[in-house]
C-alpha cells in the first residue's frame, strides 16, 4: 500500500523538473519535488509520496487526511 501525506508549501524554488518546495508536515519541514504539481503555490496543500508532491488538495481535504491519520495512530497504539 502507498501512503501520501498532506503538507503545506512554505516556499518554492526552481522551475520545471527541478522545481522544489519547503513543505510543512505539522511542524516537520522537508524539501519536496514539485515538478508534478506545477499549479501549486505557497500556502497550498499538496499530497506527498516518497518526497514528490503528486497532487494539490484544499485545506479541508488536508484536515480530513490529518484526522484519519491521527485515528490510525490511536488505533495502532491500543494494540
Give the tags:
single chain; 79 residues; alpha+beta; SH3 type barrels; 5-stranded antiparallel beta sheet; 5 strands
Would you write up a description of this structure?
The protein has one helix spanning 59-77, and strands spanning 5-13, 20-25, 28-33, 45-49, 52-57. It is of the alpha+beta class. It has one domain: Roll (SH3 type barrels), CATH 2.30.30. It has a 5-stranded antiparallel β-sheet with strand order 3-2-1-4-5, covered by helices on one side. The model has no long low-confidence stretch (mean pLDDT 91).
Q: CATH topology, anyone? A: SH3 type barrels
Report the CATH C-level class. Mainly Beta
Summed up, the domain count is 1
Strand order of the largest sheet: 3-2-1-4-5
- The stretches of 5 or more residues where confidence is low (pLDDT under 50) are none
Return Rg in Å. Answer: 13 Å
Q: What is the general shape?
A: elongated
For the biggest sheet, the summary is: 5 strands, antiparallel
Amino acid at each position: 500500500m502507498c501512503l501520501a501525506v498532506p503538507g503545506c508549501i512554505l516556499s518554492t524554488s526552481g522551475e520545471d523538473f527541478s522545481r522544489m518546495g519547503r513543505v510543512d508536515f505539522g511542524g516537520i519541514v522537508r524539501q519536496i519535488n514539485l515538478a508534478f504539481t506545477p499549479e501549486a503555490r505557497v500556502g497550498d496543500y499538496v499530497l506527498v509520496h516518497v518526497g514528490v508532491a503528486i497532487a494539490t488538495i484544499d485545506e479541508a481535504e488536508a484536515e480530513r487526511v490529518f484526522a484519519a491519520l491521527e485515528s490510525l495512530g490511536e488505533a495502532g497504539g491500543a494494540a
